[in-house]
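Record 1 of the preview.
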Amino acid sequence: MITIQAQIKGMHCAACSGRIERVVGGMDGVETAAVNLAAETLALTYDPDMVTTESVAQRIKGLGFEAEFPSATISGSGLEKLNLDLGGMHCAACSSRIERVTGKMDGVTEAAVNLAANTGSFTFDPAQVSRRAIRQAITDAGFSSEVLSETDNLFEKKRKEAEDRLAAQKRAMIPAFLFALPLLILSMGHMWGMPLPVWLDPMHAPLSFALVQLALTLPVVWSGRNFYLQGIPALLRGGPNMDSLVAMGTGAAFLYSLWNTIILGMSDFQTATGLAMDLYFESAAVLIAMISLGKYFEAASKIKTSDAIRALMKLAPDTATLIRDGEQIVISIDEVEPGDTLLIKPGERLPVDGVVADGRSSVDESMLTGEPMPVDKETGDPVAGGTLNTFGALTITAERVGKDTMLARIIRLVQEAQGSKAPIANLADKISYYFVPTVMMIAVLSGLAWYFIGHAGFPFSLRIFVAVLVIACPCAMGLATPVSIMVGTGRGAQLGVLIKSGRALQEAGSLTTVVFDKTGTLTHGRPELTDITMVTGSMDQTEAASLAASAESQSEHPLAQAVVRYAREHDLNAPQPDSFVAIPGKGIKATIGDQNVLIGNREFMVDNEIDLKGDSLAVEAVTRYANQGATAVYFACENRLNAIFAIADEMRKETPEVIGKLKAMGLTPIMLTGDNEVTARVVAGLAGIDTVIAGVMPDRKAAEIDKLQSEGNKVAMVGDGINDAPALAKADIGVAMGSGIDVAVESGDVVLMKSNLNALLTAFNLSRATMTNIKQNLFWAFAFNSIGIPVAAGVLHIFGGPTLNPMIAGTAMAMSSVTVVSNALRLRFFNG
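->
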């Protein structure tokens, strides 16, 4: 099975997306088809042996929509495709020359140049030829080229199309209101006591009154012609949508009024005067104008839902400074290749992921991780594209470029999340599919009931029919969930929390249990020397730490490295030992100058006949360290115990507070670790965790998660995403916690870019805020339709209440979608 995401054009409401889902989902070879109305995307999982993307696109086209699938990938072949914007071509000879020159290069398997579009597509083997070499060959042939970034261009193209549609809607809306407002005054003004000239007064010149209204209505109908051009064909295909409701409602009012105008022109004066009072041109015109206004506001708000993605895309600079043969050459970021040496000046953003080759600086990674403080970088440290170099110049070696950079992967994950669906949307989708036909049936039955049973007359029945059609709003139901997911996941990315699907967003809001891996999650994941107890009457602490660091400098053991780091951080002199012997599982012997040093565990000291009970401070320290969950390391010099070092994987300072807040949220924290029971209990006690599952190896953690789930718990597993990947996959929600730019973003359902447990609270709170937002949207969407449709059908009028004017009904419908989208946009201001 292959999963692919396509862009869908031409959708206007939930009826459209629901119809595409149902039809495409029913095709042979299609496993799932999920359409996101807000993102205008189709997530398709299919068997390429049974169905092709071309056949799916053709089926969608038959429904009246357009599907754009990404260009075919060259999977499994190791080949890459380079798309270029070419300059300097004037005729077919030019395009042919480029094809011949590049086609003869080793590693280029295909070269296709489009003269009309001034573009070229080149398929090549990166092991034999580079992108830069292809472009250089084109330059040498006398032409220019610029790399076309497919991902960025697709996003910008989609946004440009949305902005163009918005501008077109605005242009159409202006004449609609310019003609609709005077029409409203003309048709209703005399009822409000506004005087009309004799030649327009319906009591004196009914034909002029009707013809002027018709003349004012026609431009409005023309400005809203898309309602008819899209709604009527959809109705004829058996898949009516919101446009169909508007087309039928306004069309009925317009045609009825037009017919009355024709009859009026052929009638006597008394009959004509009566018919002049039975025109509904203003209903059709004002409806079109108000619904157009609502659609404009909705479109303007929907554009803002992609602001987070756009902000991420703008983090990467357009160019990079390449150092080649001692020269600095400014090149396009798309031209950077792994292994290139790049110069990053102070104040510049890093173009790609890499490693610092030279220089020292601080890099602001907040735009990717949410960490507010710049991170010091020196030779050998990793850096990520999109981050900001603050004060020092850096020379880096490029490692991951293009679509493989951390920033590109984050953008891709967020886009996939924004295009996904949450289970809570299923009910709305099912209702939306049947909603429009049901509303049409209610409108027809209501109109007929008032005419035949209520004896209300045709004008009144027509008004009921139109009001029911135009108040119904499938858009609000269709947008209720996806716009909140789009804004919520985008905001999460800005805060350093990647929520990778709508399902994860929903599940994270309904958890009961949070399981933590200990090492690297509750703790920093690195042993540190946390305390030193000196034996009475021995050397001072500085000398002991210095000698210990000298001896341990030859060892790769994690505990040894903790001592070495301590000495380095405290600027202690630690010379190389003259001799060094490691005894596996026990400790080390070393000679430093004329001093013989022993460092190791209790057994090692006993083996070397070191007195361990001669000092009460030492005895008490060993007990105290054990109670703190630290490892006691003994240090002896010249056959005498001098110090006890406490080495521990320190708990994150925020851990107890985060655990307390999780409990306050009604969640049960559990620690799952491979440590022994005693150490695990000590750490759990310090963290505030009551339930501990200890002695569990990584390959058994998934079974423990399964056990918790079988007891009815909704479980989140929080780990590093590497050693506990099976457990993350088994949990209802897997949360991978990394250390800044080193995090494996493909791990888990939720990825915390910050090396801080508070990000977990941000993820859970964002999930709950988004789910609350979705429920608010769904409530208003369903409540609006549930209340509005009966009122429009005249239910209140049965009991002596008012009826709903079609113009007010249409305005309310238009504003319902705006309300839903505007409510979702509030999530942009979520701060955790």
